[in-house]
């Protein structure tokens, strides 16, 4: 998952909205850690399950890492200023986007991580022209 995060960092240096879906422990935060490391962030990368949002400055880019697992209603997103973050040209990574699907725009890239008998199956899909360009560059 860290290797995939590093690869995504190569193409997302100018911002994107990326949704990360998968069961608990599937590797969503591990992917984010790999991406942040590739962008030059050397500090601790933790899951924002309890804080809901962690923001990282990488020198090149502001990265917002959001975890909606504990969100019970999409309207709660108002307090996170997600719309502003997503429109600022930053890289915004949202775990558990299905918890607030009616309140979120289409992602540039959707990453789906599923368990398999011996590892993980990762499916990447684009929902915008920017996302299609990112995946083509991968």
Question: In terms of topology, how is this protein built?
Answer:
Layout: H1 2-11, E1 16-22, H2 28-38, E2 53-57, E3 62-67, H3 82-87, E4 91-95, E5 109-116, E6 119-126, H4 129-137
Parallel strand pairs: 1-4, 1-5, 3-4
Antiparallel strand pairs: 2-3, 5-6
Helix pairs in contact: 1-2
Overall spatial form: globular
Number of domains: 1
CATH class: Alpha Beta
- Proportion of beta-strand residues: 25-35%
Any idea of the CATH topology? Rossmann fold
Tally of alpha and pi helices: 4
Biggest beta-sheet profile:
6 strands, mixed
* Biggest sheet: strand arrangement: 2-3-4-1-5-6
Low-confidence runs: none
Instruction: Look at the structure and name the CATH superfamily.
Output: P-loop containing nucleotide triphosphate hydrolases
Name the average pLDDT: 87
Report the structural category.
alpha/beta
The beta-strand count equals 6
Radius of gyration equals 14 Å
CATH architecture: 3-Layer(aba) Sandwich
Helical amount: 25-40%
Quote the distance from N terminus to C terminus.
15 Å
Helix and strand run: HEHEEHEEEH
Give a structural overview:
- The structure is a single chain.
- This protein has 138 residues and is an alpha/beta fold.
- The chain has one domain: P-loop containing nucleotide triphosphate hydrolases (Rossmann fold).
- Helices cover 26% and strands 28% of the residues.
- It has helices spanning 2-11, 28-38, 82-87, 129-137, and strands at 16-22, 53-57, 62-67, 91-95, 109-116, 119-126.
- A 6-stranded mixed beta sheet has the order 2-3-4-1-5-6.
- Helix 1 (2-11) packs across helix 2.
- The radius of gyration is 14 Å and the shape is globular.
- The model has no long low-confidence stretch (mean pLDDT 87).
């Amino acid at each position: 998952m860290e290797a995939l995060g590093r690869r995504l960092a190569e193409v997302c240096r100018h911002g994107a909205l990326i949704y990360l879906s998968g069961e608990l422990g599937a590797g969503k935060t591990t992917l984010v850690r790999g991406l942040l490391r590739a962008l030059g962030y050397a500090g601790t990368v933790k899951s924002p399950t309890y804080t809901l949002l962690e923001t990282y400055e990488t020198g090149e880019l502001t990265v917002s890492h959001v975890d909606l697992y504990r969100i019970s209603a999409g309207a709660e997103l108002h307090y996170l200023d997600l719309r502003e973050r997503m429109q600022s040209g930053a890289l915004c990574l949202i775990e558990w986007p299905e918890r607030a699907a009616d309140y979120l725009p289409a992602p540039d890239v959707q990453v789906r991580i599923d368990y398999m008998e011996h590892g993980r199956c990762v499916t990447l899909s684009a929902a915008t022209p920017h996302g299609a360009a990112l995946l083509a560059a991968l």
